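User: I'm preparing a small set of examples for a lab meeting where we compare how different chains pack in three dimensions. I only have the primary sequence for this one, and I'd like the structure in token form so I can line it up with the others. Please keep the answer compact; I'll paste it straight into my notes.
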Amino acid sequence: MPVPMDAFDDVRPAAECLELLTEPVAAAIRTWSGSVPVQELRYVDTDPAIADTAVLVEHHGPWLLQQSANCVVVAGRRGGETTLAACVVLSHTRVDVNGVVRRQLGARKASFAPMGTAVGESGMEYGGITPIGLPAGWPLFVDAAVADVPYALIGSGGRRGKLIVPGKALAELPGATVLDGLGVA
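Assistant: Understood. Below is the structure token output for the 185-residue chain.
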């Protein structure tokens, strides 16, 4: 089931809303390439007070939980070296940090990155981190279930606003690896 665009008051092409996006996200949309045309990426203006998934679902309805995806930053450590990566899973699941992510990073230990690190390194706001516009070189792990959705509601880089993006486009982002079992119940 695609995200019903009419469930939101203000939905516009993301390329027409660059001034509302954080700089890394706006830059990625300006230079968009891939099989999904940039016109298919939409910006939804939302109140920052309802940015968290649970509150957004409460406000718009339970259907949203199945169509939303979260992007979290993880840190994998091995031999004193830390690798940051981003993981995208459907909102009703959680990231398998200690299994799938740790193995993919070849890390001895993996955990969620501290908020200051996630925000500082991504150039995005906490609660709005998105896989679009991540730093070059970061691994991006996308759960296969996210890649399969027609459209996912994801962060826009800031707490205000969301993006509606085809799952296929998320799977094609720079550095992306699609993984089965990244998101677990």
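A couple of notes for your slides: Residues 13 and 106 are 38 Å apart (CA to CA). The chain has a mean pLDDT of 92.

User: Perfect, thanks.
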